[in-house]
Design brief:
By secondary structure, this protein is mostly beta strands. It has one helix and nine strands; from the N terminus they run H-E-E-E-E-E-E-E-E-E. It has two domains: 40 residues, no CATH class; 52 residues, no CATH class. 7% of the residues lie in helices and 44% in strands. A nine-stranded antiparallel sheet has the order 1-2-3-4-5-6-7-8-9, with no helix packed on it. It is elongated.
Length: 109
Amino acid sequence: MKLISDTYKELGIAFTFPIEITDANGDNTYYEDSTPYWVRWEYDANRKVTYHENSAGYWFKWERDAKGNDTYHETSNGDWERWERDANGKVTYLENSNGYKSGTPRSNH
């Protein structure tokens, strides 16, 4: 990923570290310091983080249903979790990358 500081330099824009960018809701979307460590975030309509990555190569992502309930989570180290829920949001099935499974998946109903 191209650093914001590099873009600022190319455009001749004066800046100081840290560079912090927020969205219209005030949520952090980008941070960069002089080392140059950086991190960026993405959010859903409910202002919950859906994606995060940093200059160390770590990332994670979240998926949620229309009610904001977690349905899937994955990390750059290969770990993941998946949830199924009933109409009230209660977890009815859970499985993860370690082979753990609990409940009955919808496909078996």
